[in-house]
Design a protein that fits this description.
Elements: H1 4-19, E1 28-33, H2 37-49, E2 55-60, H3 62-71, H4 82-94, E3 97-102, H5 115-128, H6 130-137, E4 143-147, H7 151-157, H8 163-177, H9 187-204, E5 208-218, E6 224-232, E7 239-240, E8 243-244, E9 250-251, E10 260-262, E11 264-274, E12 287-294, E13 297-305, H10 307-313, E14 322-327, H11 333-336, H12 344-347, E15 353-357, H13 372-378, E16 386-390, E17 397-402, E18 407-412, E19 415-416, H14 418-421
Parallel strand pairs: 1-2, 1-3, 3-4
Antiparallel strand pairs: 5-6, 5-17, 6-11, 7-10, 8-9, 10-14, 11-12, 12-13, 14-15, 15-16, 17-18, 18-19
Length: 423
């Protein structure tokens, strides 16, 4: 029987060899908090075993960010040195791969931070590193987001356990979601990817023009929780599981993943929906949110907790429009676990979700190679921000309308229909 440490080492191998599919002679950057350093060492070892030319770690320390937000003069919060821009440009030219490790050492650290200051620091960072972000979002470079537990995060997910048991339980949940514990051959992840690609293949073979989301469960106002129609672009392309870079290298952007996603048209959303799980603009929690759309834009919104955060978020250009629509079956092992992870990588893979803000070019057929003008003409949304918001439930229904007006059920009561699953 494998020990937990053996499984963690296999998880690191999975992220390097199938997450970014690191090729010999290619360099790698790992972005992680200092609290993740033990797992970062596992990733680095796996990368060099795979033939990495060079591995560099971009460390972050949230306590230092908190000090800056608390004590910096306000006029300096929009400063970011150009050296970081030059570094990103060099990595793009050389085709570096990117692994981002999530797992907060201090999950609630920014809970009392000034949301306006957090927004400023984050949008300046994203704006100055726009070229790097764009290269990732159009799959010019291979990238993967993965997770590592921390004691504080484990206590959030398993508050009834002592610290050691909670950390072990969270590791086991992460490894299970990544199909690491399925078998030692690594075939578990590949089999899972093939199942997800069945859904994307079904949708890509049909002229889907729009999706109607309907959840009859009454909200606090007595209306259906969700009654929302989202129109797609004229060239929709569904992405699921694995993706190719521009030069054909197949990689897995998220480990774990349970979604099939597409890029909507920024001007085609009508109706309303409610969040089904907490989400985290500016690393601060919002719960019980609702949104009403007209002509693609959020025109009304509210939240039981975190309304000021939404006010700040929706003050950013392009953030009131959608950049992603993702389908997730409630048979997802993450949903079936019954756990709330307080982490977008996991919670978004438990439920249908929408992303406010920036859209993915790859969710448009041939979008990764299109020029900005062409993407704009097709309706790709642009924004400095991208915020995943979960709306899926066990009572959600999704219906596709085709270009000729005919319709096909895609999901009923949170599950893909048998036709979609190829059954």
């Amino acid at each position: 029987m494998q020990t937990l440490q053996n499984q963690i080492a296999r998880y690191a191998e999975l992220i390097v060899t199938q997450g970014v599919n690191l090729q010999p002679g290619r360099s790698l950057v790992i972005k992680a908090e200092v609290g993740n350093r033990a797992f970062v060492r596992e990733l680095m070892a796996a990368a060099y075993r795979a033939g990495a030319k060079f591995v560099e770690v971009d460390w972050s320390d949230p306590l230092l960010l908190k000090e800056r937000l608390t004590h910096s003069r306000p006029e300096y919060l929009d400063y970011l040195p150009d050296a970081l821009v030059s570094q990103a440009a060099e990595r793009i030219r050389e085709g570096w791969s990117n692994i981002s490790v999530v797992g907060k050492e201090y999950p609630n650290l920014l809970e009392d931070a000034d949301a306006e200051k957090v927004r400023l620091v984050q949008t300046v960072y994203l704006g100055k590193l726009e070229a790097w972000r764009a290269a990732l979002m159009r799959n010019q470079l291979a990238w993967c987001v993965c997770a590592v537990p921390t004691p504080a995060w484990a206590r959030q997910v398993f508050p009834q356990m002592d610290d050691e048991d909670a950390l072990t339980a969270l590791w086991q949940a992460i490894l299970s979601a990544a199909h690491v514990s399925a078998d030692e051959s690594g075939a578990g992840w590949q089999n899972h990817i093939r199942q997800l690609e069945q859904v994307a293949g079904f949708l890509n073979s049909r002229p889907v023009d729009s999706l109607h989301f309907y959840d009859p469960t009454p909200g606090p106002d007595g209306k259906a929780s969700t009654d929302l129609t989202i129109g797609l672009t004229a060239r929709p392309y569904w992405v699921s599981g694995a993706s190719p870079t521009m030069d054909g290298l197949v990689f897995s952007p998220n480990i774990p993943t349970e979604e099939a996603f597409v890029t909507p048209h920024r001007g085609r959303a009508e109706g309303w929906t409610r969040s089904s799980k907490p989400f985290f603009p500016f690393d601060q929690e919002v719960t019980g949110a609702w949104f009403r759309f007209a002509e693609g834009q959020v025109v009304e919104y509210g939240a039981e907790k975190g309304q000021p955060l939404l006010d700040q978020f929706f003050g950013v250009e392009g953030s009131r429009r959608l950049g992603e629509v993702a389908l997730v079956d409630t048979e997802s092992p993450i949903f079936q676990s019954g756990l709330l992870f307080y982490n977008t990588l996991f919670d978004e893979n438990a439920a249908i979700h929408l992303a406010f803000g920036r859209g993915y070019p790859i969710g448009i057929r041939d979008g990764g190679t299109m020029k900005p003008d062409g993407l704009d003409a097709l309706g790709l949304n642009l924004s400095a921000l991208h915020l995943d918001t979960m709306i899926g439930t066990e009572t959600m229904n999704v219906t596709a309308t085709y270009a000729d007006g005919s319709q096909t059920p895609i999901m009923r009561d949170g599950r893909y229909t048998q036709e979609v699953q190829g059954m």
